[in-house]
Amino acid sequence: MTTIGTIGSGNIGGGVARLAVAAGYDVVLSNRRGPETLADLVAELGDKARAATPAEAAAAADIVIVSVPLNAYESVPVDELAGKTVIDTNNYYPERDGHITELDEETTTTAELLQAHLPESRVVKAFNNIYFPHLASLGRPTGSADRSTLAIAGDDADAKQQVVEFLDAIGYDALDAGPLAEGWRFQRDTPAYTRPYFRADDSGEGRPVGREELAARLAEAKRYRDA
Ligand SMILES: NC(=O)c1ccc[n+]([C@@H]2O[C@H](COP(=O)([O-])OP(=O)(O)OC[C@H]3O[C@@H](n4cnc5c(N)ncnc54)[C@H](OP(=O)(O)O)[C@@H]3O)[C@@H](O)[C@H]2O)c1
Fold first, then answer.
1. 42-80 residue pLDDT tens
2. Mean per-residue pLDDT over the chain, rounded
3. Would you give the DSSP letter of residue 196?
4. Confidence label for 98 from pLDDT (cuts 50, 70 and 90)
5. How far is CA 7 from CA 12, 117, 196, in A?
6. Which of 130, 141, 202, 213 is most buried as measured by Cβ atoms within 10 A of its Cβ?
């Protein structure tokens, strides 16, 4: 069975871990403060989950979710992730992360930064454009009429296929937005970013987003400099 690792086990890392355990995966969680601080989440998730250091989670897993504040990306372990599929959920918020010149100048994208840090890994961008309560609530079985679609981007076809299968198992369809360099199409403040998954009635509840709608929103996206 595929083991999922999380580096960062907060809103999104922990949320993906919950969905993964519900789908039958083994999960190894990690965070910044240490495995003992994840005891409550491990207890909630049961026998399929354990907590470890980031390096141990990276080494133990087949697919690793990196879900940390972007300014922590350079502390993600490199050697233990070599050859592995790494899912990057991260977004750039300069007020939280500080300014990163290449992102301000749009000479790269967030997931390409992580890929440059992890040259031997196969980075796939996913989960960054959905608000965490909606990720928890919108998952549906394969083929459901109200299933939601999430965008992915990546340079390695096999890694993307692995992520498509993982998303399917935890309740989501995937729409391939292209290589990592196209990941900006669903970055912060683009038409595909989080808002579509909110109901229009201000309740804060989630609404399903299908493939056609997501594709149209990706096509509408503009670089920040052109927006
Ligand atoms: N919140 C959302 O709805 C949402 C949606 C899509 C994407 N995102 C993006 O996903 C990323 C995570 O967001 P989040 O809301 O899940 O954040 P969060 O709830 O604050 O969780 C962050 C996690 O990262 C861990 N962490 C911080 N520095 C680390 C390091 N150096 N090494 C290992 N782990 C580290 C934290 O550990 P400690 O608790 O020990 O500090 C915590 O487990 C962000 O880039 C965010 O923009 C968020």
1. 999 999 999 999 999 999 999 999 999 999 999 999 999
2. 98
3. G
4. very high
5. 11, 15, 27
6. 130
- Rounded to the nearest angstrom, the distance between the alpha carbon of 70 and the centre of ligand 1 is 8
With a 6 Å cutoff on the Cβ, whether 133 touches ligand 1 is: no
Separation of alpha carbons 154 and 144, rounded Å: 26
Residues written for the chain:
227
Q: Which of 109, 128, 104 is nearest to 193 (CA)?
A: 128
For ligand 1, atom 32, which residue shows the shortest CA distance?
Answer: 32
Instruction: Return d(Cα 211, Cα 94) in angstroms, integer.
Output: 30
Tokens (6 digits) for 170: 């935890």
Say whether pTM exceeds 0.70.
yes
- DSSP code, position 202: S
pLDDT confidence of residue 1: 78
